[in-house]
């Protein structure tokens, strides 16, 4: 893919990723509430899965049908698209381009497949991997959600094992200890600040 669009100097494309159930949504919520920053844009991604309780269309995700998702993907409107647990997820390209061009950090909460896809296209993407204290604890969190049956839970556990084995692919790894989500959000806030100092003149190419 050609690098047709350049972000403003120092603007970050930051990927927050990790296995299902690790707490990504809650971490993002706390990061936004405890560390508000007008120079950050939290990208709203697209998905074909059903909306869960407490999720808000257009804020949690853009919920689209399979045909609508396919049209976005086929027209190049998605920076990446991945199928996870039978559902499709994708990152709207224009949101990312607009944020970076305006000098804002584009922050993505996406799955591990999506993170790998973006790193393959965007060399300067910053990858942050969230991990649980243990695999058993992650399984307990997934079971507590009560959104999957036993077979689906076991599939997510196997997926998590494979995903955790790839954490060396990331720039930073952060453990989300149970009951310490504010500490996790603080750590990510610190990482973003540190990376700004390291990448002050760098421009992300999309």
Describe the structure concisely.
With 206 residues, the chain is of the alpha/beta class. It has helices spanning 24-34, 66-74, 93-101, 112-121, 135-145, 150-164, 181-198, and strands at residues 13-17, 40-42, 46-47, 62-63, 78-84, 87-92, 105-109, 126-131, 172-175.
Give an overview in words.
With 206 residues, the chain is an alpha/beta fold. The protein has a domain at 13-43 and 105-198: P-loop containing nucleotide triphosphate hydrolases (Rossmann fold, 3-Layer(aba) Sandwich), CATH 3.40.50. It has seven helices and nine strands. The chain has helices spanning 24-34, 66-74, 93-101, 112-121, 135-145, 150-164, 181-198, and strands spanning 13-17, 40-42, 46-47, 62-63, 78-84, 87-92, 105-109, 126-131, 172-175. A five-stranded parallel β-sheet has the order 2-7-1-8-9, sandwiched between helices. A four-stranded mixed β-sheet has the order 4-3-6-5. A hairpin with a 2-residue loop joins β5 and β6. α1 (24-34) packs across α7 (181-198). The chain starts with 12 loop residues before the first strand and ends in an 8-residue tail after the last helix. The relative contact order is 0.25. The model has no long low-confidence stretch (mean pLDDT 92).
């Amino acid at each position: 893919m050609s690098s047709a669009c350049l972000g403003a100097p120092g603007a970050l494309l930051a990927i927050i990723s990790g296995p299902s159930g690790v707490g990504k949504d809650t971490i993002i919520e706390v990061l936004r509430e405890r560390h508000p920053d007008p120079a950050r844009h939290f990208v709203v991604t697209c998905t074909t899965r059903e909306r869960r309780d407490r999720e808000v269309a257009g804020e949690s995700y853009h919920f689209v049908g399979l045909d609508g998702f396919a049209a976005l993907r086929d027209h190049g409107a998605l920076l990446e698209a991945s199928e996870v647990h039978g559902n499709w997820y994708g990152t709207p390209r224009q949101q990312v381009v607009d944020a970076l061009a305006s000098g804002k950090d584009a922050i993505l909460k996406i799955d591990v497949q999506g993170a790998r896809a973006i790193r393959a296209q965007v060399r300067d993407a910053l990858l942050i991997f969230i991990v649980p204290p243990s695999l058993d604890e992650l399984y307990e969190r997934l079971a507590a959600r009560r959104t999957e049956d036993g077979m689906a839970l076991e599939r997510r556990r196997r997926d998590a094992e494979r995903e955790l084995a790839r954490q060396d692919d990331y720039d930073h790894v952060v453990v989300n200890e149970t009951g310490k989500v504010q500490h996790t959000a603080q750590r990510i806030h610190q990482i973003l600040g540190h990376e700004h100092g390291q990448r002050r003149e760098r421009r992300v190419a999309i």
